[in-house]
Amino acid sequence: MTEQILNRGVNLNTDGVELSREEFLRYGRHLIMPEVGLEGQRKLKSASVLIIGAGGLGSPLAFYLTAAGVGRIGIVDFDVVDISNLQRQIIHTTKDVGRSKLESAREKLLALNPNVKIETYETRLTSENALEIIKDYDVIIDGTDNFPTRYLVNDACVLLKKPNVYGSIFRFEGQASVFYAEEGPCYRCLYQEPPPPGLVPSCAEGGVLGVLPGIIGTIQALEAIKLILGIGETLIGRLLIFDALKMKFRELKLRKNPNCPICGENPTIKELIDYEAFCGITPEQTLRETGFEITPEELKQKLENGEDVILIDVREPHEYEINRIPGSKLIPLSKLPEKVNELDQTREIVFYCKMGGRSARAVQFLRELGFTRVKNLAGGIDAWIEKIDPSMMRY
Amino acid sequence: MPVKVMIPTPLRPYTENKDSVEVEGQTIDEILSNLALKYPQLKRHLFSEDGRLRNFVNVYVNEEDIRYLDGGDTKIKEGDVVSIIPAIAGGNFQEKIF
After folding, report:
1. For A359-378, what is each residue's pLDDT tens digit?
2. Contacts of residue A169 in chain B, CB cutoff 8 Å?
């Protein structure tokens, strides 16, 4: 049994915060619930929430927090809307493709609830700006879901004593928790260090079911609202794991690690660090810097000159069905170790995938086995389509 | 005694896409090494070169982290469920290996 942790919520000053006639009508369904009521709605109105990333998790989050009447919502993002975002990032629409995500989000949120103040930060969150941006908010929600930002947000929240509502998604699986060092464990108590780059798949390559960020994002929104209202039991000290295929929620206990480098008894991290360096450089970058990369133009030239080049596609069969570079052979990355003796070390071999990440792992793997004439196609088949053959189907 | 081990989504390619597997063992160390024997490709994802459990992989018995039990020596009872919980991140530039 998990022991009950009383939700003390965040400290808010509701002095002088009143609701207008329109707001009484708008929030009527909150006001008639004793757990929220007028006092709770005034808390929501005096509260501020910072959402980092206006993407898959950020979309439902921002919508529900705006609808609920959170007084001030900050959003950090620097990206533009791409058509491939629309499968899950429901705050953006087809006509927004090419627009700034912040502009697109602000428009939808103000249309939903003009009482909410939307503040936007068109920047990447960095060690230089994080403390300055985060300090003015009561609750922080990381909707970006990558390791450098996750450690950055965690550390900044620990240093500023802010609750950090965590969510993460992968294919059909999601996780959520609340990291709040004042009351319980932080992310570093759970994982002191991130996995080295290359050991974990990404959304771009691993894929994600579009509904999943909707479920995890709304759980994050709910936790943020509970922290503001100071009601119920939050996910502080608990990791919620959701399996969408089995439709099962599981729960694991998280404990504060006395040896945690930032919130433990003798912390060694006292200020923000360089999180990109902490999370390591990718195999792709390594190959670029050591000359084991080939551009689409160079590859095209070699093929046209009739040079002896073996072209290996390391994607999955269902991706190979959509598009492929003519003359390539499919060996999915996971099958490479067992097929490696079919490859001729003396010939030049070029590997590609969708964007260049998986093929970089393949090239690294073969280099470790002693292959010297192996190259990674920079930017993968996406770059090939863009630079060489735009008639090919893209996904 | 066979013990049920829950496999997280990112590691399922190395367990023939099974979301849980049964392995023999009395302690966590025995169970994890038998798991790595059964699915050799899983090994490098669980253990570093010096054979220690990687520090971005946590192991739970039921809902408790083994770091707060007896670590690798934690004894398993009939009906216990072991879960492997690696750090995951969706929107990352990072990609999978074998």
Report:
1. 988 998 898 888 999 999 99
2. 90
User: Does the active-site annotation cover A353?
Assistant: yes
pTM of the model: 0.83
Top residue of A82, A147, A154, A199 to mutate, by most chain B CBs within 10 Å, is A199
How many domains in chain A? Answer: 2
Distance from CA of A168 to the nearest CA of B (A): 6
Are both A197 and A325 inside the same structural domain?
no
Residue-wise pLDDT tens digits, B45-68:
899 888 889 888 999 999 999 999
Residues 6+ apart with CB under 8 A from B23: B2, B3, B5, B31, B34, B35, B38
User: Is the CB of B95 less than 8 angstroms away from the CB of A193?
Assistant: no
CATH code for the domain in which residue B25 is found: 3.10.20.30
pLDDT given at position A205: 56
Burial A233-246 (b: 16+ CB within 10 A, else e): ebbbbbbbbbbbee
The answer to whether residues A97 and A201 belong to one domain is yes
Catalytic site residue A279?
no
Angle at B59 (CA atoms; ends B54, B61), nearest 5 degrees = 165
A297, A348: one domain: yes
Distance (Å, whole) CA A190 – CA B68: 12
Write out the residue range of the structural domain in which residue B10 sits. Answer: 2-86
Residue A383's domain spans which residues?
A: 283-387
The CATH number for A316's domain is 3.40.250.10
Q: What is the ipTM of this complex?
A: 0.89
For residue A254, the SS3 value is: coil
Residue B53 lies in a domain: yes
Instruction: Round to whole Å and give the CA distance between A105 and A78.
Output: 12
Instruction: Give the separation between CA B90 and CA A203, rounded to whole angstroms.
Output: 5
In a shared domain, residues A272 and A304? no
